[in-house]
């Protein structure tokens, strides 16, 4: 039964990836004009680039993707490049490869968004539980109300406020970037300190905006489990309120939060685009912004493809583990 469920979910994942790759192929190619020639004309009009190199780049793309071939031939060539993880070259930064551009930005986004998501999840879940627990101190509800207000403010606006306060008014943190200017990253404490110092404001803006959202969800779940039988039984046994809160209420209400956390972790590769742009943080979101500005056709295509496949795989993994962690879910077919 479980193997049949895995096979069905795997088939859905493959269908999603197939449609995503196909749409990712078709939409740019249905647009008028040739992106390679457009980039060539743009560079020539600006007086930049070497004509020989640009001509070689155009020839390389036309030969690799068969741009002079019928659309169906280009489609199969694109699938071949996807399956071999060869996404070609960047138009704006030739001869940089698309895979190198993405792999260079991905660790920055994973570090920033992964850390921010985990911090906001832990603090938001605990705060929301205390806000919904009747026997918690009133101070937690007052403090939580202020945190909930922050959740209604977009994180990039919080980032702009933090940038103004701690860079312009009180110049405590750097204005942007991922490392101090001129510093080469390495496996040493100086690099760790530099990365942490530059990530402090982007991290704070995301945590301040997201903690309230996690708290709202957890508060609602705590309120919904208060009247359940296992809570009533624990109270009838005379257990301490703290133990009832930790061992019964929080554990029962955690499942939707864990599900949401799994989906949030799947989304972190997309980056907090506006936050990364505001702080010039060298993550995937900032790289995508630069590619859109430069009309870097293949980098945009590669990043969008990576995001789609990552989300599809993460959803598939979540579908597999969800029946194992929630005993209320059954895989039996009706009828």
Task: Explain this structure.
- The protein has helices at residues 2-30, 35-45, 51-65, 71-83, 98-132, 138-151, 155-169, 189-225, 229-236, 241-267, 273-278, 284-294, 297-325.
- It has two domains: 2-83, no CATH class; 108-294, MetI-like (MetI-like fold, Orthogonal Bundle), CATH 1.10.3720.
- The chain is mainly α.
- Helices cover 75% and strands 0% of the residues.
- Helix 5 (98-132) packs antiparallel against helix 6 (138-151), helix 5 (98-132) runs antiparallel to helix 10 (241-267) and helix 5 packs across helix 12 (284-294).
The name CATH uses for the topology of the largest domain is MetI-like fold
CATH superfamily of the largest domain: MetI-like
Instruction: Please tell me the overall pLDDT.
Output: 78
Gyration radius, in Å = 25 Å
Please provide the ordered H/E string of secondary-structure elements. HHHHHHHHHHHHH
Give the amount of beta strand, in percent: under 5%
Runs in which pLDDT lies below 50 for 5 or more consecutive residues are none
Count of individual helical segments: 13
Summarize the structure.
The chain is an all-alpha fold and 335 residues long.
Topology (SSEs and partners):
Elements lengths: L1 H29 L4 H11 L5 H15 L5 H13 L14 H35 L5 H14 L3 H15 L19 H37 L3 H8 L4 H27 L5 H6 L5 H11 L2 H29 L10
Helix pairs in contact: 1-13, 2-3, 5-6, 5-8, 5-10, 5-12, 5-13, 6-8, 7-8, 8-10, 9-10, 10-13, 12-13
Task: Fill in the keyword field for this structure.
13 helices, 75% helix, 335 residues, mainly alpha, MetI-like fold
